[in-house]
Amino acid sequence: MKILVATAKGQGIRTSDYHFATEGEHVVFASECDRRESIDGRCGCKRGLAGTTSRKVTTTALVIDADIDRQDYIDGIVAAQAEAWADLIPTEELVEEAEEMLRIADCFPVGAVVEKRGTSIKMRDPRAVTATSA
User: Fold this and answer.
1) Quick check: 53 and 25 in contact, CB under 8 A?
2) Does the pLDDT at position 35 exceed 90?
3) Is there a domain that residue 60 lies in?
């Protein structure tokens, strides 16, 4: 099953890139502030994905084919997110987020490096990713 995990691959393509998450950990949408700044603004929340274990963020994620059952993945994401957000976000919304992450991962080929740009998830140019990973 395709899922998104934190990666340093492709970092540096944008000057606003950052990678503090643990390589290979599952990622979800990072919380966003209400500042009215551009996607590449100082805050960075409009381009961040958060690691579910480290709770640290990255601007790049890798699509992998993981040996995990769909329900186990959803349960794991919900458990990790509930640990941080249980008092603020209902379980149903956490399930929806996990399912959305699976839908997004399924849109891209295994090995693709993706980025969050506002409300969009896009694949980074594979040629540029290869150049930065060399």
Assistant:
1) yes
2) no
3) yes
